[in-house]
Design a protein that fits this description.
Strand order of the largest sheet: 1-3-6-7-8-9-10-18
Number of helices: 12
Low-confidence stretches: 1-17, 20-37
Helix content: 25-40%
Number of strands: 18
Mean pLDDT: 90
Distance between the termini: 60 Å
Largest sheet: 8 strands, parallel, barrel
Shape: globular
Order of helices and strands: HEEHEEEEHHEHEHHEHEEEHEEEEEHEHH
Structural class: alpha/beta
Number of domains: 2
CATH architecture of the largest domain: Alpha-Beta Barrel
Strand content: 25-35%
Radius of gyration: 26 Å
CATH topology of the largest domain: TIM Barrel
């Protein structure tokens, strides 16, 4: 009769555990190697200037970062009180043409005031005029074959019905031309989608920025606030539209005169004012004017307040990490807002890769 000694039994247990450890490590290695991307990612950038004039450095930056799409603001539509009707304003001047290897998506911003005032009987006509103007202006880019159009409007409960009717008319025109229609979405319009409604578009594009009222002097950073953002991350699993994403990549100074907002000074950051002899720093982001002066073409009065709202690549990456678990469709466009000299300077190739890789 053969007996197993305690030492032999212990050796067998250790051997079995070692074998199990090897198996587990092997499985982890192979599972890591075989992991597939959860999303098919395209990279986009927004261009929100009055002149479409890409510099050589901008073209190089677009190429180096494999930007697939430029969301290009073609024009705005606002209510004209003299004409008592909607009218295009701020039309883009096309100084750069023949863009290769990058898809141009025309964007039209429509003011809520326009939707509020327009008669129901004129909505279909407005849709036709918007669509025709987009097509006409696309020829200036030598890009007649537009594949997608985006409408940007921060609709409210009072304008929802008419705005959605406008989108339906635009969607019919787009469908006939084999063009996709997308609409911008704000965070609260997802959390409360049963109240705010879902726009009748082919896709939605979530603006993951501008989260608190910029006009409130007590706001710390209206562009991005992670604590506020997390409060709105509801109902993404129920939202019926597939979502693309816009992440913030811009900074500005919010100008207050007599505690009321009087302007937004683009591309302003903390370093812009730290060494400015006409301002004193009150805290991390607040500066006070010590005398009347001119700053970036803005007239500043003594005692005016400027709140710096700065976004860095680190902030953009944080925003991407927060929203990534809630994007459920298998393909999406991840875009930065917006293309300018500061983005080219501050967001290098690794930054752009790190941001988009969060969604892989």
């Amino acid at each position: 009769m053969c007996f197993t000694t305690p030492r032999q039994l212990l050796s067998g247990v250790i051997l079995s555990l070692n074998n199990l450890k090897i198996i587990v490590i092997t499985l982890l290695i192979f599972s890591g190697c075989s992991k597939e991307s959860s999303h098919k990612i395209s990279r986009g950038i927004y261009y929100w200037e009055t002149n479409f004039n890409l510099s050589q450095s901008e073209k190089q930056w677009l190429n180096n970062n494999n930007i697939n799409k430029i969301y290009l603001r073609f024009f705005d539509v606002d209510w004209n009180p003299v004409l008592k009707g909607p009218a295009p304003i701020g039309s883009l001047r096309f100084l750069t043409k023949n863009i290769s290897n990058i898809e141009i998506i025309p964007v039209v911003f429509i003011t809520n005031k326009t939707i509020l005032n327009i008669q129901d009987s004129l909505i279909k006509s407005l849709a036709g005029k918007i669509f025709k103007r987009i097509q006409d202006e696309s020829f200036a880019l030598n890009t007649a074959n537009i594949k997608a159009i985006q409408i940007d409007c921060d609709w409210t409960l009072s304008t929802k019905s008419k705005y959605f009717a406008l989108l339906n008319d635009l969607k019919a025109l787009c469908r006939n031309a084999k063009i996709s229609l997308s609409a911008t979405i704000r965070l609260h319009q997802i959390k409360y989608y049963k109240i705010t409604g879902v726009p009748p578009a082919d896709r939605g594009t979530l603006m993951f920025y501008n989260m608190t009222p910029v006009s409130n002097i007590n706001t710390t950073n209206s562009i991005f606030n992670p604590d506020i953002a997390k409060k709105y991350l509801k109902n993404f699993d129920k939202y019926p539209l597939k979502l693309d994403l816009i992440l913030p990549a811009f900074s500005w100074g919010v100008l207050f005169h007599n505690n009321k907002i009087s302007g937004l000074i683009n591309d302003l950051n903390i370093n812009s004012l730290k060494d400015n002899k006409y301002f004193i720093q009150k805290n991390n982001t607040i500066f006070k004017a010590t005398r009347d002066n001119i700053l970036n073409h803005y007239r500043i009065h003594k005692n005016d307040i400027i709140r710096i709202e700065e976004i860095t690549p680190k902030t953009t990456k944080l925003a991407a990490k927060i929203i990534e678990p809630y994007i459920r469709n298998d393909s999406l466009v991840v875009s930065l807002y917006y293309l300018n000299k500061k983005v080219i300077k501050n967001y290098d190739k690794k930054d752009v890769e790190d941001i988009t890789d969060i969604f892989d």
